[in-house]
Design a protein that fits this description.
The chain has 10 helices and 14 strands. The chain has 299 residues and is of the alpha+beta class. It folds into 2 domains: 7-248, Hsp33 domain, CATH 3.55.30; 254-296, CBS domain Like. The strands form 3 sheets. Strands 1, 2, 8, 9, 10 and 11 form a 6-stranded antiparallel β-sheet that branches. A 6-stranded mixed β-sheet has the order 7-6-3-4-5-12. The chain has a two-stranded antiparallel ribbon with strand order 13-14. The longest helix is centred in the last third of the chain and has 20 residues, at 193-212. It binds zinc ion. The site of zinc ion has 6 residues, from loops.
């Protein structure tokens, strides 16, 4: 089980006050990319954001819907990933085709050049409650890992280190995308100065180990999850917990789309009608829905 892909592997370092998550996506990510016909540069960010979302959602003890949303005023102006409690993942993006093409040709992957000024938000909508929780910060840094570090620092969550890797284009030789995340757990209340210093040093050491991971290693299909973790953390007594599997699956349905259409005014609906029909394409999975004009009657 630990050597499957498309799952999250929770682990902790026995000799340090640190927990972590390893996520390595294969079919799940290829399937999401296949639903869309996005340029490579958009797929690159879509894959990193999806992998990051799987790593982060598994840290929350809640049953409901998790959403990562990145918005900006740049060429890539919206990126959304959502994951439900069954582990069904979907993702989509909105962008300016021409401007993305120019960045792609220039080999420019800088996050700020893609998104411009923007925001980075995680939302949790627990199934059993009306409340939703949202953490939102300004989009900072040159890549998604920087933005995530900034998010955790600003939202006073646990100290977090993360590396993200995504393959250039879809190839069979490598995994689609990977994330390795560690978090420092709160220190015990009564702790000696010596122990505190030791735990501080261990955190700095673990951060440098995570930072030493190369993209090649993270995406190497031949390097098992177990080998990857033990190679990195063998000195720290790494203990691996039960993995959780995720799959690519959209939640759209004819009744949900119909319900969504009902929220438009009669005038707006009239504008959507072509040849007595309203056609809607799901932004996440590309599925097409067709409704007769009289199926969406407004009274
Ligand atoms: Zn769909």
């Amino acid at each position: 089980m630990i050597d499957q892909f498309d799952c999250v592997i929770p682990f902790h370092l026995e000799k340090s006050n640190i927990r972590g998550r390893l996520v390595r996506l294969d079919e799940l990510m290829r399937d999401i990319i296949k639903h869309h016909n996005y340029p490579a540069l958009v797929n690159y960010y879509l894959a990193e954001a999806t992998t990051l979302s799987v790593a982060v959602v598994s840290c929350f003890k809640f049953e409901g819907l998790f959403t990562l949303q990145i918005t900006g005023n740049g060429p890539l102006n919206l990126l959304v990933v959502d994951i439900n409690k069954e582990g069904h993942v979907r993702a989509c993006a909105k962008f300016d085709q021409e401007k993305i093409k120019s960045l792609d040709e220039a080999g420019d992957k800088n996050m700020r050049h893609l998104f411009g000024e923007g925001h980075f938000a995680f939302t949790l909508e627990p199934e059993q409650e009306d409340t939703r929780y949202q953490g939102i910060v300004e989009l900072m840094g040159a890549n998604l890992a920087d933005a995530t570090h900034h998010f955790f620092r600003q939202s006073e969550q646990l100290e977090t280190g993360i590396v993200l890797a995504s393959s250039e284009g879809v190839t069979e030789a490598t995994l689609a995308s990977s994330a390795l995340m560690i978090q420092r757990l709160p220190l015990p209340t009564h702790i000696s100065i010596d122990l505190k210093e030791q735990l501080d040093d261990e955190w700095i050491h673990a951060m440098s180990l995570v930072g030493s991971m190369t993209k090649k290693e993270l995406l190497d299909r031949q390097l098992s999850n177990e080998d990857l973790l033990y190679r990195l953390f063998w000195e720290n007594g790494v203990r691996v917990h039960e993995p959780k599997t995720y799959i690519s699956q959209c939640r759209c349905s004819s009744s949900k789309i119909q319900h969504m259409l009902m929220s438009f005014s009669a005038l707006e609906l009239k504008d959507m009608v072509m040849d007595d029909k309203i056609n809607v394409t799901c932004e996440f999975c590309g599925r097409q829905y067709e409704f007769g004009e009289n199926e969406i009657v407004k009274s």
